Amino acid sequence: MTTFQFDQDLENKFVSLVEESWKRYDDIERNSWLDDVFVGASITAHLDNGMFLLDATSDGKSHYFVFADQERNRNVLKVDHRRGEDYLYSKTVGHLTAVTLAVGRAYPDLKKLFKAARSEVQSGMAGEGRIAGYEDPGVMKVDREGSIATCETTLLLDLNDYVRIEDLSVDREKLWM
Is pTM beyond 0.85 here? Predict the structure, then answer.
């Protein structure tokens, strides 16, 4: 029968492995929070800049928000994070999210509205996304709803440029710009 002998070096190695595992676990968990922090900070930035939240929807893969100001001007924000929460993807490519930004203006002048409608038809020829299911960045699309014409584009952003992973703080000035 063998007797158990305590080995301090082995114990230290085990404790070190557990501590490293918790650091990785925490890193993975924080990575999954970046999208939520970014979305919350984006809403706060709009509200702090005098916009009202008109609509908010989510399908679990993307969040869609419509903001307006006193003059009925609109900002639309869509944050698509379907690939961003994957830890390996974010470590190799970046914590990417597709952010669609749109600015809408009220046009009581029908000539301007019809001009915007023609642009909408022409913008239908824009790329529908060739890489990873994201729309082509920087392509402008024009849409209209009633007397409001909206121009939108999609940007592919790395959330690490806006949110610090260590403490989940947001660079609010950079976010609003």
Answer: no
Q: By the 8 A CB rule, do 147 and 117 touch?
A: no
Query: Would residue 1 count as lying in a domain?
Result: no
**Residue span of the structural domain in which 56 resides:** 8-176
What is the H or E stretch that residue 155 is in? Answer: strand 148-158
Residue 39 lies in a domain: yes
Burial class of residue 92 (count of CB atoms within 10 Å of its CB; 0-12, 13-18, 19+): exposed
Q: Identify the CA nearest to 123 among candidates 108, 107, 136.
A: 136
CA distances from residue 12 to 5, 16, 20, 62 in whole angstroms, order as listed = 15, 6, 12, 44
The residue type at 71: E
Q: Do the beta carbons of residue 142 and residue 116 sit within 8 Å?
A: yes
Phi, psi of 165 (to 5 degrees): -65, -30
Q: Is 3 part of a structural domain of the chain?
A: no
Q: For all residues of the chain together, what is the average pLDDT?
A: 79
